[in-house]
Amino acid sequence: SARIIDGVGHARRLRADLSTDIAEFLARTGVQPKLTVILVGTDAASRLYVANKARACRDVGMQSVTIELPASCTLPELLSVIDAANEDTTVHGILVQLPLPAHLPVRAVLERISVAKDVDGFHMYNVGGLVVGSTVFSPCTPFGVQKLLEAEQIPIAGQNVVVVGASNIVGKPTALMLMQKDATVCICHAKTRDLAQFTIAADILVVAAGRPNLILAPMVKTGAVVIDVGINRLPDGRIVGDVDFESVRLKASHITPVPGGVGPMTITMLLHNTLVAARASVDEAQGTKAPQ
Ligand code: NAD
């Protein structure tokens, strides 16, 4: 039976280290890292995510400001709020909570965020950084997946990685990041024919499709590492991932539970990126180059 990867424990350890680093940074520079989160509209799940991010910031000693805009907000109004945060030197990280109301063009909004403050890593420049292997900010969920693999001392180089899901926020960047670590990567998506023929070849299977029970035991190689990014709410209220946990755990060598696997790592990496942004801004103000 697989080792169950304890995302809560890994996240707790990383956040304790971050608290120490932030306190040391504040003592040395007088600067407290600050994240500005922009929330448009009243989507209940988005509100919960934003509240969780704000609390996580406070818990590690960062400042967090949430700017709430009505769902009716226009593109120029939203862009001017982003511009103000870009210009505010006390703000180190800026995040626009997705999804946006349908009338707002998501690319134009993300591209307005200063690259140096783009702690979600969704700006096209930061996406390009992933492609060429010169990363400024890695997107938080894929970064969390990579950190979990590293924390579990799972080798990546030379391994067959199959990523199920090809979204811009999870699937594609996960594939790029693990390819950068010298994995052999295959990306599957909703149009993939015979998903199982790909997943069965995976040494590391990362699943981010948003489909409960998409991955069943016969689709998984014996001894594979299974990372379940999916978060699905069933009609009975239970939260499950995309992997049939009870059957796949008998075949895998490692598996992440849902909840308690990748989820806690995502916000942790957001905190990490915000500290990196704060350090870089201080280095820039002092005219020194930030160590990468
Ligand atoms: P998305 O809907 O944007 O993308 C889903 C991807 O899965 C698409 O590429 C689609 O082609 C593919 N897909 C859908 N059905 C499939 C099928 N039957 N077979 C193969 N591929 C299929 O979703 P997303 O934003 O990438 O999120 C994916 C899942 O991860 C969701 O459940 C989401 O809630 C979860 N998520 C979790 C975290 C976290 O912190 N743990 C963060 C972001 C997203």
Automatic annotation (TrEMBL):
<dbReference type="InterPro" id="IPR020867">
    <property type="entry name" value="THF_DH/CycHdrlase_CS"/>
</dbReference>
<feature type="binding site">
    <location>
        <begin position="165"/>
        <end position="167"/>
    </location>
    <ligand>
        <name>NADP(+)</name>
    </ligand>
</feature>
<keyword id="KW-0486">Methionine biosynthesis</keyword>
<protein>
    <recommendedName>
        <fullName>Bifunctional protein FolD</fullName>
        <ecNumber>1.5.1.5</ecNumber>
        <ecNumber>3.5.4.9</ecNumber>
    </recommendedName>
</protein>
<keyword id="KW-0368">Histidine biosynthesis</keyword>
<dbReference type="InterPro" id="IPR036291">
    <property type="entry name" value="NAD(P)-bd_dom_sf"/>
</dbReference>
<comment type="similarity">
    <text>Belongs to the tetrahydrofolate dehydrogenase/cyclohydrolase family.</text>
</comment>
<feature type="domain" description="Tetrahydrofolate dehydrogenase/cyclohydrolase NAD(P)-binding">
    <location>
        <begin position="139"/>
        <end position="280"/>
    </location>
</feature>
<keyword id="KW-0378">Hydrolase</keyword>
<keyword id="KW-0511">Multifunctional enzyme</keyword>
<dbReference type="InterPro" id="IPR046346">
    <property type="entry name" value="Aminoacid_DH-like_N_sf"/>
</dbReference>
<feature type="binding site">
    <location>
        <position position="231"/>
    </location>
    <ligand>
        <name>NADP(+)</name>
    </ligand>
</feature>
<keyword id="KW-0560">Oxidoreductase</keyword>
<dbReference type="Pfam" id="PF00763">
    <property type="entry name" value="THF_DHG_CYH"/>
</dbReference>
<keyword id="KW-0658">Purine biosynthesis</keyword>
<comment type="subunit">
    <text>Homodimer.</text>
</comment>
<comment type="function">
    <text>Catalyzes the oxidation of 5,10-methylenetetrahydrofolate to 5,10-methenyltetrahydrofolate and then the hydrolysis of 5,10-methenyltetrahydrofolate to 10-formyltetrahydrofolate.</text>
</comment>
<feature type="domain" description="Tetrahydrofolate dehydrogenase/cyclohydrolase catalytic">
    <location>
        <begin position="5"/>
        <end position="120"/>
    </location>
</feature>
<dbReference type="Pfam" id="PF02882">
    <property type="entry name" value="THF_DHG_CYH_C"/>
</dbReference>
<keyword id="KW-0554">One-carbon metabolism</keyword>
<dbReference type="InterPro" id="IPR020630">
    <property type="entry name" value="THF_DH/CycHdrlase_cat_dom"/>
</dbReference>
<keyword id="KW-0028">Amino-acid biosynthesis</keyword>
<dbReference type="InterPro" id="IPR020631">
    <property type="entry name" value="THF_DH/CycHdrlase_NAD-bd_dom"/>
</dbReference>
<dbReference type="InterPro" id="IPR000672">
    <property type="entry name" value="THF_DH/CycHdrlase"/>
</dbReference>
<keyword id="KW-0521">NADP</keyword>
<comment type="pathway">
    <text>One-carbon metabolism; tetrahydrofolate interconversion.</text>
</comment>
